[in-house]
Amino acid sequence: MPQKKYLITLGDEERAQLEHLLHSGTPATRTVTRARILLNAAAGWEDRAIAAALSVGRATVERLRQRFVEEGL
């Protein structure tokens, strides 16, 4: 299996921001989905598993990984 080019590592503050988004009840569905993708990627989930669990495309997960690594939260 090829090694991933864009690995997600979240700092404590970033993780807290994402967790807050999930539990605040007000953000848009897309924002919540992106937060879940990043949290699951940081936990070591495979892109396929994240895509299946969140009903998104694998390319969406890959693009979000890349954007996070290149641009940050």
* Total beta-strand segments: 0
Strand content: under 5%
Helix content: 55-70%
Mean pLDDT value: 87
Query: What is the element string, with H for helices and E for strands?
Result: HHHH
Low-confidence stretches: none
What kind of sheet is the major sheet?
none
The radius of gyration is 12 Å
Rough shape?
globular
Number of helices: 4
Task: Say what oligomer this is.
Answer: single chain
Structural class of the secondary elements?
mainly alpha
CA distance, first residue to last residue: 28 Å
At a glance:
The protein has 73 residues and is mainly α. It has 4 helices and no strands.
Outline the secondary-structure elements.
Elements: H1 12-24, H2 29-42, H3 47-54, H4 58-71
Helix pairs in contact: 1-2, 2-3, 2-4, 3-4
